[in-house]
Design goal:
This protein is α/β, with parallel strands linked by helices. It has two domains: about 190 residues, EAL domain (TIM Barrel, Alpha-Beta Barrel); about 200 residues, Hypothetical protein af1432 (Orthogonal Bundle), CATH 1.10.3210. Helix content is about 50%, strand content about 15%. α1 runs antiparallel to α10 and α8 packs across α10. The chain is elongated. The two termini are about 20 Å apart.
Length: about 400
């Protein structure tokens, strides 16, 4: 587990209301990776670590993108209705990039040209963009006014970026800019948190499976569930769609796999790999995997149809250890079914029975009453099997010596 940072800077309208937030890469020290890695870093934190709702609420998310994301070599995975794709000024205006931008616009993404400069050649991207951002700090008043007038003729929204003085703001207001961004209005806020790392080995196994068109959701799930972090990330990514009303609420990792679909799973896994996920496990991961497997085995003894949901409940119950956050906060960030939420928070229902027995057995409390209906010898056997399974699974994630 490591600390992560992601920056966000508000973009205001003419009445000083927040229109959206630009999401920015923030790394330790002065180290800056390549553009693809920076975009992947922002996307992973926005989707899997913090959550887009926590970063921007119901506002737009402005994300800088490189050629790889524009041409489809990497997927954006953010919801089109809430995402503004900023095309960086150094991205080549090639036919492949143009075709990729047309595809993204067709999928519902809003396109913005970042730090736009006038050129003598016609720019085909002006016909696709809905927003154009001008760097006020880098342009003299006359070129700024000329560029503004030219771009405005395309019926786009204009952003005055890097506004640092009152004089610059007043000049941009006089020209008629629609949106404003810069240190004068608000400096970028850094959001920090704990980043969980999925196993690179597990990610590669998922990618390998997805290369086979005969692979079923059950086969993908069987790989994902061996990694507590990846399971959580899939549940959270699928749950983000559920929170927006796109999907039903979730009851298992299998549902998350099905709802995400092959393309989005592949995109998420590639983002995780590109973001530098690495091998590794610790005792907290072992606890999470043991709880998940033990709850599943207990359910199989008496309520086999609840086995998948029991695995999920056992897994999520340990996320407070991994994320260092209160369990109610974690549960609220996920779109789990009501029966799962109540089992996790109140230990009610049949799923709550399984979880209560798992936690009691883990603590070794004397004289506790079993609620699952399983015999103590069966509970003990489930625990030993789960511990063995978790040790083997986590052992495969350890880096080679």
């Amino acid at each position: 587990m490591s600390q992560f940072m992601v920056g966000r800077q508000p973009i205001f309208d003419a009445k000083s209301r927040v229109h959206g937030y630009e999401l920015l890469f923030r790394g330790p020290g002065s180290q800056r990776p390549d553009g693809d890695s920076m975009t992947a870093d922002v996307l992973v934190h926005s989707i899997l670590d913090v959550g887009l709702d926590a970063l921007v609420g119901d506002k737009l998310a402005f994300v800088n993108t490189t050629r790889a994301f524009l041409v489809g070599e990497q997927d954006l995975v953010l919801p089109p209705i809430q995402t503004v794709v900023e095309i960086c000024e150094d991205v080549p205006r090639s036919p492949e990039v143009l075709a990729g931008c047309q595809r993204l616009a067709g999928e519902g993404y809003t396109l913005a040209l970042d730090n736009y400069r006038l050129s003598q050649d016609d720019d085909p991207f002006l016909e696709l963009a809905s927003i154009i951002k001008l760097d006020v700090l880098a342009m003299a008043p006359a070129p700024l006014a000329e560029t503004f007038r030219h771009c405005s003729s395309f019926g786009v929204k204009m952003i005055a970026a890097k506004v640092e003085t009152r004089r610059q703001l007043e000049a941009c207001q006089k020209l008629g800019f629609d949106l404003y961004q810069g240190y004068l209005l608000s400096r970028p806020e850094v959001v920090e948190g704990h980043q969980l790392s999925s196993s690179r080995l597990t990610c590669l196994r998922v990618i390998d499976k997805l290369c086979d068109p005969r692979t079923s959701a059950a086969e993908v799930e069987s790989i994902v569930r061996t990694d507590a972090v990846l399971s959580y990330q899939f549940l959270r990514a699928a749950g983000a769609g559920a929170a927006l009303g796109f999907f039903r609420r979730l009851s298992s990792v299998r549902e998350a796999v099905v709802l995400l679909g092959e393309r989005r799973i592949r995109a998420l896994v590639m983002l995780i790999l590109l973001n530098g996920a690495h091998e590794g496990s610790d005792e907290q991961l072992n606890i999470a995997m043991t709880r998940a497997r033990m709850a599943e085995l207990l359910a199989m003894e008496t309520e086999p149809h609840l086995a998948g949901a029991a695995f999920t409940v056992g897994l999520v119950s340990a996320l407070d250890l991994l994320l260092r956050a209160p369990l109610p906060v974690i549960v609220e960030s996920m779109s789990l079914g009501t029966d799962l939420e109540e089992a996790l928070l109140w230990h009610t229902g049949r799923l709550g029975d399984f979880l209560a027995d798992v936690l009691a057995w883990e603590l070794g409390a004397a004289g506790f009453q079993l609620r699952s209906g399983a015999h103590p010898s069966e509970v003990e056997q489930c625990y030993l099997q789960a511990l063995s399974w978790a040790s083997k699974v986590c052992g495969t994630l350890e880096p080679a010596a």
